[in-house]
Amino acid sequence: MKQINAKINRKLFDLSEQRQSLRQIFFALILFLAAGISVAAQTKTIVRVAVETIVENQTINLGDIARISGDAAQIERLKNISLGYAPNIGAVRELTRERIALAISTAGFAAPEVRLDAPPSVNIRRAAQEINRSTLLEAIENAVRIQISAETVEARLIKIDLPEKIFAPNGKVEIRTNLAGVRNLFAPFAVSVEIRVNDKIFRRFAANAEIEAFAEVFVAAQTLVANAKITAADVRLEKRRIEKPLSFYLRDAEKLRGATLVKNVAAGAEITADSFVAGIVIRAGDRVRIVGQSGKMQIIVNGEARASGKIGDRIAVKNLQSNAVLQAVVVDEGLVKVIF
């Protein structure tokens, strides 16, 4: 009986040992599988995308909107995945999670390789800078100043229609203006404005502008009658507001020489280009003085005009001493000049 009990006890002990070994093997398998899962989780690449993102460039890559962690080689490939064009300045582009996932899949990444951590939709805006209004005004004023070019004209910008706010991409901003098509700067005009960012045209627009300008011009010192010659005593200089091109006003006293009025001019009215013409100051047969000049040497002889002319015209004259016929330039009444 004792032997039978001993055998039974031994078998029970052996069974207990076997169960203990099986338990150890089972727990070892669990630990192995858990470690494998942990390693796989650690090596899996994770793409995290925020709800709102601001991008700098015209095109969007995944690296512009996501933080990517994991395998270094995969990170570089993932960063360069294209997501299309960035929105215009001031606009918003919405990208869905499905669109991002599709781009990752299209680039050759299997679902188990990459974990996408993103909201259902992502809003993307374009980074921008505001163009200062004073910068635009300065550029337009400089263009006007260069166009007028006359130092004796006082001009200032009194009106300019510009957009309330202008936003442009980040970068080096250059403002270019164009007044080439403007015939009269002293009446309301439109100036072409071009905004460049990093040497690329960003925007063009036309701005309506108006300037206030003053300059000294000749006005009638008294009432002047048509067909009369203008003399220095007939005019005086006054500062007036300019509303027409400068060439319309008489500002050079030299132009008075030989000028004849073609219409009546009231006292105090501007002497304008359409109120006088250059008159004939020498007529054929008139006695003239001929000034002959060669370098610094100058001689004067008497002559006779063979043709009529205005100041600046070239006419034939006869030297009464030598009887030679010369070509001379009309300088003033009764005076011509020959350059040897």
Which key terms come to mind for this protein?
single chain, 340 residues, alpha+beta, eubacterium ventriosum atcc fold, Thiol Ester Dehydrase, Chain A, Type Iii Antifreeze Protein Isoform Hplc 12, 4 domains, five-stranded antiparallel beta sheet, five-stranded mixed barrel, 5 helices, 24 strands
Structure description:
The protein has 340 residues and is of the alpha+beta class. It has four domains: 45-127, eubacterium ventriosum atcc domain (eubacterium ventriosum atcc fold, Sandwich), CATH 2.60.480.10; 130-213, Thiol Ester Dehydrase, Chain A, CATH 3.10.129; 215-278, Antifreeze-like/N-acetylneuraminic acid synthase C-terminal domain (Type Iii Antifreeze Protein Isoform Hplc 12, Alpha-Beta Complex); 280-339, SH3 type barrels, CATH 2.30.30.760. Helices cover 24% and strands 40% of the residues. The chain has helices at residues 2-43, 62-65, 72-79, 97-106, 133-148, and strands at residues 45-49, 52-55, 59-61, 66-69, 82-85, 92-96, 114-117, 121-126, 129-130, 154-160, 167-168, 173-178, 189-197, 200-220, 235-241, 259-261, 276-278, 280-282, 287-294, 297-305, 309-310, 314-319, 325-332, 335-339. Strands 10, 12, 13, 14 and 15 form a five-stranded antiparallel β-sheet that branches. A five-stranded mixed barrel has the order 19-20-22-23-24. The longest helix is centred in the N-terminal third of the chain and has 42 residues, at 2-43. It is elongated, with a radius of gyration of 47 Å. The termini are far apart.
